[in-house]
Amino acid sequence: MESLGTHASILTKSSGEQYSKALHRNSTLSILEAKYIVFPTQYSDIPPILSYATSQSPPLEIAVKGGGAHSSTWASSAGGVVIDLGRLNAVRVSEDKQTVTIQGGAVWGDVYTVCKQVNIDVVGGPFWFVGVGGYLTGGGYSPFSPERGLAIDNILGAVVVLANGEIKRTSATEEPDLFWAIRGGGNQFGIVVEFTLKAFPTSGPFNVGALMYPGTEIENVLTVVQEWKMSYTTREKLNITFGRPGPHFKPMITILPWISHDSPNRSKEVLAPFRALKPVVDSCAPVPDMLAVSHIADAQFALVPPRLIIRGALIKDLWTDMMLDVWSKWCQFTAQNLDARATTVLWELSRADKIAAIASDQTAFHARDPHYWVAIQGRSLTDASEAAMRSFVAETSFKIRQDNTERAGKDAGFFLNFAQGDEPLEQVFGPNLPKLSKLKAKYDPQRLWKKGMFIEPDFHQ
Asked: In three state form, how does the secondary structure of 165-207 look?
């Protein structure tokens, strides 16, 4: 590996602290010890790495790390090669400020830092540490989605390193099959080393923070949620979270608003129904830009256990009785499993009209009927509590999906970025799976990209 003649840096276990630091992931459950961790500094560094890995006997597994925020092991490898894109993190704004070009190793904090300087926004993630690449190729729900659709609906072009080492530019008019596949097909078609996104004038300031209520207020809070849901606009959204914050660790329901184009009167009006319930904590306040928004939860993240598993579900509606049923089961689980009481349930409430405006076959992301999503974020303090935490997360996400299917008449499927790899492909990719299988045969006939939701290539014409 060291003799490849590239500009990449290479780490092995003998590299000591540097190697240990490079293994870091957002969840400690995502860490696997690679044989090599390689940091390319230019796109042409990557093909020789792929060639080396595939020439070994047996071939070395290849994993690709962007931000390392996904709670699976998809960006890690036990004994294989991890291509860490962290040094390919440049962000460039066009002269007319209409587009932003982002390298695949950037995190959203890199993007928002640059956008802040020129007063623009892009459809991106809510947290600074989330990698751009995995977020975008999975679909990309954003605070801006109610106004501008999914993040993938705002990709204008990309550069992809294919399994055979070719470096391809792709867009709606250039290699359109590849462009279709990387918008929702995940990591199955190549390493996306560059994205070009639409940009727009900043929507700030934003009002963000938390409104917290004791668990005894759950029914009153959900009543207000249902009423608020009837009149809210595309310029605001809510997350509704079940959690047990310290130091008392009692069940709490928290409203996490995001309000764009903020002004004192605007945020006051939007939040009035929730403030009427007299929250015990109200930290909502204006911040100037998405960089500040992306750091708003830093203090909270610093306190939670690093063992993390996330699963989720797409749902047609936020039915109060379903949410109360989940609340009851979550309260019981976290009361009986103290080492896993940092486990939370997060429901997203935002308009999906723009998401639904795109036909399900226009990108690899198929879930285009109006919907919401829920994420079960399992956290455990100890190895001993991990199994119970994993079971609760899996069973709860399954039960929510089952309830949704019964109520809505059909399964809404899984969101790729909340999957763990054991979900049925048909439910992750829906009716787009046959086309994805054909394109897998076209762009990865040797099955190089096996991490993640592996799609078997279909070579039949």
From this structure: CCEEEEECCCCHHHHHHHCCCCCCCCEEEEEEEECEECCCCEE
